[in-house]
Fold:
Amino acid sequence: MGVEITKILKKSQAALLERWMKNQLADMGLREDLMSNEDLRAESEELINALVKSLNEKNLSEPGSSDFDHVIEILGGISISRARQGFSPRETGLSIISLKEALIELLQESVTDPKELVDISLKLHRLMDSFVITTFETFIKGREEVILRQTDEISEISTPVIRVWEGILALPIIGTLDSARTQVVMESLLTEIVESGSSVAILDISGVPTVDSLVAQHLLKTVSATRLMGAECIISGIRPEIAQTIVHLGIDLSEIVTKATLASALLYAFKTLRLEVRKPAVKTSF
Amino acid sequence: MKRILKMIATIISLNKDPMPVAREQDVVPFRNRVKEYAVKIKMGLVNQTKLITAASELVRNMLRYGGGGEVLIEVVSRGRDSGIRLTFKDDGPGIPDISLALKDGYSTGKSLGLGLPGTKRLVNEFDIKSEVGKGTKVTIIKWANG
Structure:
């Protein structure tokens, strides 16, 4: 047994940190906008401490060893926080890769025998590469969480039921109407009908890009359910090209009241409720 | 650009773009891609909508009954006309009776039964080949001014 890597590392832990900091700053320039110098130093120091503590001669060639659990945990924390702060994957990856460089440089100075140096740096490379991959995996996971959260937000904002008038509800549908969406739309519409005691519901499909037979089927189901609740359902926002397509497809919507615009649907609803919208009579004298 | 000349009844394919469709979530990106090509060859709004609706029907069929597959999007030309050809291929159970499947209102699922017959009315050319146990291949063409 020649060189003892643990001893070298323990002895020059402070030097390693300095070197790594220098490398990190040289690689990405300090992103003052995203992270302060002090934060970066604190993060780096924590990682080096954990690494030096867990590394020994035996587990040097076993990146999967459970001794490194703490190191991997810290690495995961760093990359997730960087993903959220808006660092690019390159910046995050480079900062860990530069630790490897700092380590190799340090060994180069301490180990004189070339054969031993190659041997030990090969092992160190393997270990650090595995850490870099871990960093990337967690980085991607961090980003994916952001995407998932946004997906949830989108489906939440997409189905509002609006009370446009006493007894009249409007439901603008935006995006594709799939089975899950229909379920949400139907539920919120039926609940709102009961709560508001409305007798007319307007389904506006101006924001639905494609009406194929599945979408039509979902619309028909929603209309029948609304009728069972004792309310009338009007479908509005049928564009000319959609109308032609529906005819060619052979979908029968003749049982349903359909209107081209939300305005004409509203007018129809007013008529059903025996309401009238009128301009006030112009008074000639005050 | 690589030009692939394929002579089938003097229809020339100018551009091939295969796209795998395996999940429900792939439907919207697929429709958008078809729309991109339709806009590129200056297809009118009504024909665009018809093509996209037909594509949507077929891709849903492929997902529902064929367990997903691959769609080949092609820009084709025949003389002065240009159009879009879509080829839907799956390795599903196949359709035992095609003429029955092409009838209005017939469905083995719980749908309206308008998918295949409706699609046929929406496009200019429609061809379906199916072998039980092997899979189904549907080819449609919509001309820009058709």
Summary: The interface with chain A takes residues 24, 27-28, 31, 45-46, 48-50, 52-53, 56-57, 60, 104, 111-112, 114-115, 117-119, 121-122 of chain B (CB under 8 Å).
